[in-house]
Amino acid sequence: MRDVDVLVIGSGAGGLTAALACARAGKKVVVCEQHYMPGGWCHSFPLGGYQYSPGVHYIGDLGPGGHMRQIYEGLGLSKHLTWLELNPDGYDHVLIGNDFRFDIPKGYDTFVQRLVDRWPAEAAGIHAYMDTLKSVAEELQANMGRNRKRDVLTMPFRLPNLARWGLRPLSHLQDKYLKDPYLKAVLTIQAGDHGLPASRAPIALHASVMRHYFEGGWYPKGGAQAIPKAYMRELKRYDAEVLLETEVSRILVDDSGSRPRATGVVLGDGTEIRAGAVISNADPELTFRTMLGLDHVSSKTRKKLDKTKWSLSNLSLFGAVDMDLEALGYDSGNYWYNRTPDIEKSYSVAENGDAMSAAEYEGLFVTFTSLKDRTKVKGGVHTFEAFNLITPEVFKQYAGSFGNRPEDYAEMKKRVLDAMLVTTEHILPGVSDNLAFAEIGTPATNRYYVRSIDGNMYGSEKSRWQVGPWAFQVRTDVDSLFLCGSSTLGHGVAGATISGLVAAAKALKVPMSSLMNETDGHTECWPADDISAWPEKARKRAMDASKKTPRVVNG
To answer: Mean pLDDT throughout 185-203?
Structure first.
């Protein structure tokens, strides 16, 4: 048994942020991570001789004054990170069918003007729609951290746009101001970043995602793994420990007082670690039901767990293609494809499981990771990642079978690969004939590696009564036990990171601002598509990586 000030369960973006913030405050910190590498959804992994990053495809708010930039600088992480800015003229490319394309540019005003130029007859509606989303997002940002239900009573006075529009479905706002189905599709397709269709996505949710990228998108040089590596370097600086391949089996609780209090954890091997505070980055279902035990939580929390819906998951294709993508006109931006302007259908197919029998998917997100980071090209071969939404329900049968999958699992993956490639052909014609490597990941894969419930992507589903004051709160029923991660204040890297800061502040009973005081505010950013602007050493490495390696043909 050993004593620490703060024990963090899980090393995702939220857990690492909470750990670093507490360590910087002078606390003795230990992080327990069940995987053999840190990072949660932010990790990268080698496969087939290439590197892939399943959960980080771009991060926003990293420009001057951006919230994420302030956090990374404030925690001392920026000196370990270099950010590659995605194509500012189209950090997201929207492809509908084979004939429609719209590039979403950096800059709110530029984006609005491009929409107006494409649909001049809808100029008034476009301005009204976008201005509403922007105002809701700005009020939401200003309200960050005030998720108590009593704050709802004062919202109409403090946050009029958020109060009026925030919980209404996105489709309501679109139907009020927009007519053209392709215009609606362009303004809906980024819903893949939160996992809900326009008919069920709260306006506040979609507005916050769009606002996060208004000033463009960035990718970490070195892939997603660069983010946890930066945290690990800073944690080491403050003598914090990160224990990998270390399962937490139970959260210890003292029930002798008026309220239960977390006092530490028991590891999978029986080792006890006592802690003044426990911060869990695990899904609330695992935290409360598995590690804590429902006897220690209120009936209200038990009912909430029983009613909670978890987000959609994804089918993943990790591929490598022997094609000169740059010469073909591809760039660092993400490619969002939908077969028709009916984005809603993609979600209905995903939710009812029909995608599992489809020969081609309604929609697909494809990102060419080696165009985001040119040093990752390998002998002229480019890597890409493609994702299709799917309900995790159809994969529950494979729970616990990692390493000994049933025979039908391999057959299912082959069907998924075929459908993925057929759909990817709409984005990159010729991909199937030039494939150098391909592997499929499923919700069962996610479940094993990141321990998300049923392999979900975004924690709790971000529907109307599961966000804001109705999400899982950072402070729990149990004293000294706190939550962070995608089921609390927000999802994705940004939402989880902010939740980690809030959890640390509550655990230490200090203002969040006091946890960030780094004086070195420099953030290194390079243009992903213009390696001539890179420092010489990095430029040479990128140029060498792109050189074609002759194939050796046996016989």
So the answer is: 97
Q: How far is CA 331 from the centre of its chain?
A: 21
Strands (E), 424-480: 435-441
**What are the phi and psi torsion angles at 447 (to 5°)?**
-60, -40
Tokens of 235: 């944690």
- Residue 155's pLDDT is 60
| 173 vs 165: CA distance, rounded Å | 8
Residue listed under structure tokens 């606390």: 27
Q: Where are the domains of the chain?
A: 2-43+223-308+464-515, 109-214
Residue 59, helix vs strand vs coil: strand
Are 331 and 371 spatial neighbours (Cβ–Cβ below 8 Å)?
A: yes
Identify the pLDDT of residue 153: 56
- Does residue 406 have a pLDDT over 80? yes
Distance from C-alpha of 369 to C-alpha of 382, rounded to nearest angstrom: 8
Amino acid at 53: S
Sorted by sequence, the CB contacts under 8 Å of residue 295 that are 6+ apart come out as none
Q: Which architecture does CATH list for 2-43+223-308+464-515?
A: 3-Layer(bba) Sandwich (3.50)
pLDDT tier at 42 (50, 70, 90 boundaries)? very high
So what's the pLDDT on residue 84? 98
What pLDDT is attached to residue 403?
86
Q: Which pTM was predicted?
A: 0.95
DSSP state of 378: B
Please classify residue 241 by burial: count the beta carbons closer than 10 Å to its beta carbon, then call 0-12 exposed, 13-18 middle and 19+ buried: middle
Q: Are 71 and 494 in contact (CB under 8 A)?
A: no
Side chain identity at residue 178, one-letter code: L
Tokens linked to 241: 């420990």
How many Cα atoms within 13 Å fall on the side-chain side of residue 393?
9
Tokens for 150, please give them. Answer: 């009593």
